[in-house]
C-alpha cells in the first residue's frame, strides 16, 4: 500500500481580457476497490458558479463558469489517496470474453473510433497473437501492450490531444495517450473489451517517503477478462500502487482534464504542473 499526495495545477493565461468562460474539469480521483480517497478538493480562481457531479462514465466532474472579466484562470486539484494492489481472480478464456452476453454488455468498449482505429500492421499482429494455440485473452492483451511499448518511442510534442492512434504508429513516436489509444484499438480489433484510463503516476519507482517529485498526468488501459485488468503500456507494467485513477472512458475525449470555451482574451497559454509526494 502507498499513500500519495497529488497537487495538479493548471493555469491559463490570456493576452487580452476574457469576458466569460465555461468549462468542465476532471482532475479528482474517486474511491474504488484499489484506491481510497482520503481528501480531494478543487479550487478554481476566478469562478462565479460551479456544479459537481458524476458523468456518464462515473468520473468526478466539475462544471463551472466565470462571468467575471479575467486575464488568467487557475485550477488547483489537491488529493490524498491510499492505493493498494488487490488480488485478482484468474482471467477467463475466449468463450467468456467473446460470448454474446459479454459482447452486449461491453459494446461501448468494443467499438473502434477514428481515434482508436489501428493500422493494418498492428491489427495483424493482434490477430496473429490471438490465433496462437493455447493463447488466452490475457496473454494476448499483454503481448499487444508489449508490442506497442517496444514499437513506440516516448517523445512529447510529436502528437497532440486530437492525434489518432494510426498517426502515432506511423510516426513511431508519441506519449502515454497515444500508447493507450493504440493498445485499446488493437485489443478491441480482436474482440477484447478495453477502456482508456486517465490518472496520475508517481514516476520514481518506490520513491522516498516525504519527498515531492514532479509527477505527471498519465494514461493507461484496462482490458476485460471476466474482470478488469489495468496495464500501463508506456512502461509495460501492470497498474500498481503508484497509479491513481481519475477517469475511464472509450478514449481521451471522454476524460480530458479540462475542456471548455471562452469569449475574448485573444491568444491562450497553458501551464500544467503535477507534483506528487509519497506519504507512506
Topology of this protein?
Blueprint: E1 2-25, E2 35-45, E3 49-54, E4 60-66, E5 70-83, H1 94-97, H2 100-105, H3 120-131, H4 137-151, E6 153-154, H5 165-171, E7 173-174, H6 176-189, E8 194-201, E9 212-214, E10 216-224, E11 228-232, E12 237-238, E13 243-249, E14 258-264, E15 268-278
Parallel strand pairs: 6-7
Antiparallel strand pairs: 1-4, 1-5, 1-14, 1-15, 2-5, 3-4, 8-10, 8-13, 9-15, 10-11, 11-12
What does this structure look like?
- This protein is of the alpha+beta class and 280 residues long.
- The chain has two domains: 2-84 and 256-278, Immunoglobulin-like; 94-254, C8orf32 fold, CATH 3.10.620.30.
- It contains six helices and 15 strands.
- The protein has helices spanning 94-97, 100-105, 120-131, 137-151, 165-171, 176-189, and strands at residues 2-25, 35-45, 49-54, 60-66, 70-83, 153-154, 173-174, 194-201, 212-214, 216-224, 228-232, 237-238, 243-249, 258-264, 268-278.
- Strands 1, 2, 3, 4, 5, 9, 14 and 15 form an eight-stranded antiparallel β-sheet that branches. Strands 12-11-10-8-13 form a five-stranded antiparallel β-sheet, covered by helices on one side.
- Strand 11 (228-232) and strand 12 (237-238) form a beta hairpin.
- Helix 3 (120-131) packs antiparallel against helix 4, helix 3 packs across helix 6 (176-189) and helix 5 packs across helix 6 (176-189).
- The longest helix has 15 residues, at 137-151.
- It is globular and about 65 Å long.
Amino acid at each position: 500500500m502507498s499513500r500519495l499526495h497529488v497537487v495538479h495545477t493548471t493555469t491559463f493565461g490570456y493576452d487580452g481580457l476574457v469576458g466569460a468562460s465555461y468549462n468542465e474539469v476532471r482532475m479528482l480521483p474517486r474511491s474504488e476497490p484499489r484506491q481510497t480517497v482520503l481528501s480531494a478538493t478543487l479550487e478554481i480562481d476566478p469562478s462565479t458558479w460551479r456544479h459537481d457531479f458524476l458523468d456518464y462514465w462515473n468520473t468526478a466532474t466539475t462544471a463551472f463558469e466565470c462571468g467575471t472579466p479575467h486575464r488568467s484562470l487557475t485550477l488547483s486539484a489537491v488529493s490524498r489517496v491510499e492505493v493498494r494492489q488487490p488480488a485478482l481472480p484468474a482471467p477467463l478464456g475466449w468463450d467468456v470474453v467473446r460470448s454474446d452476453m459479454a459482447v452486449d454488455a461491453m459494446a461501448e468498449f468494443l467499438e473502434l473510433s477514428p481515434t482508436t482505429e489501428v493500422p493494418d500492421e498492428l491489427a495483424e499482429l493482434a490477430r496473429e497473437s490471438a490465433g496462437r494455440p493455447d493463447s488466452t485473452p490475457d496473454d494476448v492483451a499483454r503481448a499487444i501492450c508489449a508490442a506497442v511499448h517496444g514499437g513506440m518511442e516516448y517523445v512529447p510534442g510529436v502528437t497532440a490531444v486530437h492525434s489518432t492512434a494510426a498517426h502515432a504508429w506511423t510516426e513511431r513516436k508519441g506519449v502515454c495517450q497515444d500508447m493507450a489509444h493504440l493498445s485499446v484499438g488493437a485489443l478491441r480489433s480482436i474482440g477484447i473489451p478495453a477502456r482508456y484510463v486517465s490518472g496520475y503516476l508517481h514516476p520514481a519507482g518506490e520513491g522516498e517517503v516525504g519527498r515531492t517529485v514532479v509527477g505527471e498526468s498519465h494514461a493507461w488501459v484496462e482490458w476485460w477478462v471476466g474482470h478488469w485488468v489495468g496495464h500501463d503500456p508506456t512502461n509495460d507494467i501492470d497498474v500498481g500502487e503508484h497509479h491513481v485513477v481519475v477517469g475511464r472512458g472509450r478514449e481521451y475525449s471522454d476524460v480530458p482534464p479540462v475542456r471548455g470555451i471562452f469569449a475574448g482574451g485573444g491568444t491562450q497559454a497553458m501551464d500544467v504542473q503535477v507534483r506528487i509526494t509519497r506519504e507512506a
